[in-house]
């Protein structure tokens, strides 16, 4: 199988949940991981000074994450962190995005899920830096602004932390803070069905609460068909509604993904989004092509995205085509 382009996992918000554990890496996306599951690592080539800088940066982030986890765990008991403590699904994403007529945007995202020995019977911990809106509403990674080559606002990426508890690998409950101590709560249920040897259906329902939105929900669905172990087509859609904005905000992604082994992935995606009662049937739609491959060893991946989009933000606006591109680095810790 093969999967979608790696850009924040099917769960933008959390260090990627256990079921999406990748994704983002949900993202990173389930099929590509299966296609490359037996592939040999590609060490890549880089000058000695760049290699030293890359290795040093990764080690610094890893040590910082472990130190924070160890210190946090010590608040809840005397059991040593080394006795079962883990940092899982840790990933650092750096991306540069540009749409025609808009400024360059540099985004830095970090997600990690931490197992704390002194807390493990009660909850797990998630920490990171991500888009707060996508974090709270639990948008699939394939529908994130970053993956749609949409520029972020100055307030888009913020630090977050939270406690979670999983029940029967189906229901996940979380309570956390984002930004300037803004509290959010989530309850998510998700499941996948293998409806045939080549077809997989996934459903996810998330209920959330914030002070700004009050109560809200996001419904997400995905359908994937595998033509071969290296070629797949996948559709992902999601709709969000809140008490503050009782109109559905929706997004859709239909993509074809071809794996070339060794974590090399070519993608072609049709993306669109809209808002109920906005006066415009589709606010933005477009086509984008992407390529991802290792640039150093098996834990540093580089990606390139190019796209053509036709936005129409309001009924009186004229829909015009715009070009967009993005480059990114994904460091697995």
Describe the protein's topology.
Elements: H1 30-35, H2 48-73, E1 86-99, E2 105-115, E3 124-130, H3 132-137, E4 158-167, E5 171-178, E6 182-194, E7 199-210, E8 214-228, E9 231-242, E10 249-259, E11 265-275, E12 284-296, E13 300-311, E14 322-332
Antiparallel strand pairs: 1-2, 1-14, 2-3, 3-4, 4-5, 5-6, 6-7, 7-8, 8-9, 9-10, 10-11, 11-12, 12-13, 13-14
Q: Which tags fit this structure?
A:
single chain; 333 residues; mainly beta; Porin; 14-stranded antiparallel β-barrel; 11% helix; disordered N terminus
Summarize the structure in short.
This protein is 11% helix and 48% strand. The chain has 333 residues and is mostly beta strands.
Q: Roughly what percent helix? A: 10-25%
Query: How many domain modules?
Result: 1
Within CATH, the superfamily carries the name: monomeric porin ompg
Mean pLDDT, as a whole number?
Answer: 81
Between the first and last Cα atoms, what is the distance in angstroms? 24 Å
- Overall 3D form: globular
Number of strands: 14
Low-confidence stretches: 3-45
Strand content: over 45%
Strand order of the largest sheet: 1-2-3-4-5-6-7-8-9-10-11-12-13-14
User: What is the CATH architecture assignment?
Assistant: Beta Barrel
Please describe the biggest sheet, giving its number of strands, its sense, and whether it closes into a barrel. Answer: 14 strands, antiparallel, barrel
Q: Give the ordered list of helices and strands.
A: HHEEEHEEEEEEEEEEE
- Structural class of the helix and strand makeup? mainly beta
